[in-house]
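Supplementary Data S3. Sequence and structure tokens for construct A.
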Amino acid sequence: MSKVPGWLGRVGAGLTRMGEQLDERRKEAAAGEALPGESPAAESVPPPPDYAPAIAAKPDPVAAIPWGIRVAAEAGWRLLVLAGTLWVLMRVISAVQLVVLAFVAALLVTAMLQPTVARLRRFGLPRGLATAVTAILGFVIMGLVGWFVVWQVMENLDNLSDRVRDGIEELKRWLLDSPFHVTESQINDIAENLSETIGTNTEEITSAGLQGVTVMVEVLTGILLAMFSTLFLLHDGKRIWQWTLRLVPAQARDGVAGAGPRAWRTLTAYVRGTVLVALIDAIFIGLGIWFLDVPMAVPLAVFIFLFAFIPLVGAVISGALAVVVGLVTQGVFTALMVLIVVLAVQQIEGHVLQPFILGRAVRVHPLAVVLSVAAGGLIAGIGGAVVAVPLVAVTNTVVGYLRAYSQEQALRRLPEPHGATALDTAPVPPPAASAGTEPEPEAAP
């Protein structure tokens, strides 16, 4: 009976081994044969032969795009965002164009009058009194100039109309005697067509007159806004600037705070230099016109002064106006002499006065001047053409300062040099001077 438990234990162990073997065979069969609806296991796929070509794995789609195209795409969508923002900004500015132009005009007038306020403050006047005195004197002088121009035009209007009529008759005689074979009937036909055109377009002329009344109302409104804005800018300009700085993010506040005064100095230099150059142009061209006995010499000189604030285009328009008045009133020879005077003064202005008076403070390339004046004229008319160049000059100053400021901040973030690097970057002391001798001065750059 003692042998029975041992035999039963051996039988149980054998059955256990047989179960394990059956489980292993079942797993091998499940791995080798594919079930219905399933793909065969990876272990059952035979390896490719040695002579088969290697098939590279497909790369990531982002890595498959060339680097240049990815850079262009990244820059492209950012440019689209900037263009959309600029378009929205221009739409907003066009909707409130009168307010924007009035405020910009106030900035220009403030840049011209602010040095006077500072000078009166140094003399001991309170800020309010200095602002009031400067603003009143400035507005009175501008009003007197405008009134003088209107008065001179009205006084010489009858004389000018007679001179224009005589000039037209002289031009008619010249055309009849010219080699162009113009007959009197052709001249009369042109005059009749012109009168018929004026008669048939009476309604359009009337509507244009009504639009002119609307424009005059808008101009007066803009002048009042500019006057009030100038008063507040002269009196509270510093506090307005400090309040504006609080709207700037803290990370960019230091850079903007440094760029603001430099931009204001550029604007002040531009306005004062332009006023001085325009005054010189008006005086010398006006004297030349007066010596040539051209009527309305003083109003023409004032027009030359005002149009000088429009770079390039204003000089052409005012000079052409003076030449036309000389042509219709005094003849071809006088017109040629006026043209010579205008060209001579403008050449002196462009090559001597502007580089000497404006200097490097507002140096802008002539191509940038032409493009900015054209863009400003297309966007906002004459007002846009006037403010285009100072805007470009101020932008150039701000961008240059911010670039230098960012480079300086980047250099400050670099770790301090040590070891051999510190020896390379350390300043080298000048050689010691011998007794009784002075060190030689360094050469100017």
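Construct B, processed identically:
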Amino acid sequence: MTRVVVADDQPVVLQGFAAILGAAPDLEVVGAAPDGRVLLDLVARHAPDVAVVDIRMPVLDGIAATARISADHPATRVLVLTTFDLDEYVYDALRAGASGFLLKDVTAERLVEAVRMVADGSMLLGPSVTRRLVHDVTARTPEPVPVPGLDELTPRELETLRAVARGLSNAEIAAELWITEATVKSHVSEALRKLRCRDRVQLVIAAYESGLVGA
């Protein structure tokens, strides 16, 4: 079972998210918090695999709470949900250590799958967030820049990197390249190691900065 805590200052939203996630057979909601301070207490008490966190909360906002969780409880991954897709929220959340970022208009099925992906170690960004991230990177780096380690990637790892940069999941990459998901994970791991990237978001940035893929 994947253990989850949920934090949102709107009671209806909090109860709704908890009910959706709790209904999944492989997820267990072990706590629900109305603010960031209670969230930190729940994380310390239950050591969940995933924390689903709203950005705008009283007492301690979601970004500050995410930073504390990342520093004090690195085994707990954070999935940020918000009604706002403004750039500063995206970058602040990712900088604080979030492993995923989705808007609250996400479907119930997508929310459950997002929690599973984050728990499995995948980096997850919604389509609109990815577009903004890519736009910002390409606007700042109109000309390709050298990315150390790029020339160490094998042809198959380069193909995988291009697919990651397009926002494809491991399953989608496996289907497109006619390889297994285990092989995709291996290629992604090698790309992370060779390019010295922390996560898939950094891989996306490296792919665009290097000119390997275009906007």
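The chain has a mean pLDDT of 86. The first helix runs from residue 11 to 22.
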